[in-house]
């Protein structure tokens, strides 16, 4: 930070100093009480000179290195909406099977397995949509699904 005498400090500069103080606190150079005092002093300052005084007895903090880019998975990933639907299907399936099991337990025998009429058709539709890509977007292409393509509609009241 270029410190010109009498130059007013910006909020971004104050936030940077507070971040450096946080690093010094984490490294054990400051205790919590002194950190609080210095942070209060930083937010009370108006000039860059006053900001420099807050850090004058502390060593310079190395600038953090940018994080390495996240490793991309090689396989296709399910879109969020498909993961939500699959989670809902799994949750409902667990509930109806639990209800069936409790009814069978209270009846003392296995009753008709009616949850298959909830689990089966819904699961088949989900699998079909995942396998065929029905109503799906390709991950990362940003193109609209075929059934939802945006078309320009002519509005007689709007000439644009």
Describe this structure in words.
By secondary structure, this protein is an all-alpha fold. The protein has helices spanning 11-27, 32-44, 48-55, 80-107, 116-132. The longest helix is centred in the middle third of the chain and has 28 residues, at 80-107. The protein is elongated, with a radius of gyration of 31 Å. It starts with 10 loop residues before the first helix and ends in a 28-residue tail after the last helix.
Brief summary:
Helices cover 52% and strands 0% of the residues. With 160 residues, the protein is mainly alpha-helical. Residues 139-145 have low confidence and may be disordered.
For this entry, give a set of tags:
single chain, mainly alpha, elongated, 160 residues
N- to C-terminal distance: 49 Å
Rg to the nearest angstrom?
A: 31 Å
Shape type? elongated
Separate helix tally: 5
Low-confidence stretches: 139-145
**What would the average pLDDT be, to the nearest integer?**
78
The count of strands amounts to: 0
SSE string, helix = H, strand = E? HHHHH
Largest sheet: none
Query: Helicity, in percent?
Result: 40-55%
What portion of the residues fall into strands of 2 or more residues?
Answer: under 5%
Provide the structure class: mainly alpha
What's the layout of helices and strands?
Elements: H1 11-27, H2 32-44, H3 48-55, H4 80-107, H5 116-132
Helix pairs in contact: 1-2, 1-3, 4-5
